[in-house]
């Protein structure tokens, strides 16, 4: 198959109870079997989406009714990816190259990309690290993905019911924008429980010494031109708009401040890890905030500008 052709999306049947033994549904994705996964064809995708005012939205009680899942949203996600890449200067931060470096007489390194979306990040990473195997997972079959030799599979299942992978099988787990990917009946309570369970699952599938990359929008407004970055006087309309967006997120059960809680959940001193038989949790936790301009970004005359407001207004 040529690289430009679309690859298959595998739908993982989730027939297990929430408290079931995850080992019973875990499969090594490099060894797909007929009874564990089936190909998700285009006619089946209608079971996952509904049309509202000309836009397609996921049919999933666990996914907030906030952002659509169609071609226009795919374009927005691509622009959003480009903006974040410009801010970071790369597709990643931290010791990614060191973790993914070739190791003599060792198995190939593996990366798990959660909530893949349009798939730009995983494709670019697979091209940059051809000696590494990638697994892509999302909760809905968003778009047909481009086939790549070292992207072993694109999978679709309920991540908040567990990651369908074996223990200690990945060197890096990558997660972006988790707060927009799940919904809770009780805002700020059940939502945190969902995130905590996902953090436990991420820790489970990471190899010792593995790396967890997490990125989230703060949905806050700042003014870089003043010393304390307070935008209430210089951009009151923006402040009001962001407050309205947070209120809408809250109304739908989305915890808009997930970025504050996830780092705390990673810490070994968190109550999340107290019931573990052995000391668990993450170490060497590093956080960094990046200011995202609400104007066009232009790195050079050769590169097109990225209209940042478009990332959310579309």
TrEMBL record:
Any one GO molecular function term: methyltransferase activity
Highest rank taxon of the organism: Eukaryota
InterPro entries (UniProt xref): SAM-dependent_MTases_sf (IPR029063)
UniProt keyword annotations, A-Z: Methyltransferase, Transferase
A biological process term (GO) from this entry: methylation
Gene3D superfamilies linked: Vaccinia Virus protein VP39
Protein name: Methyltransferase domain protein
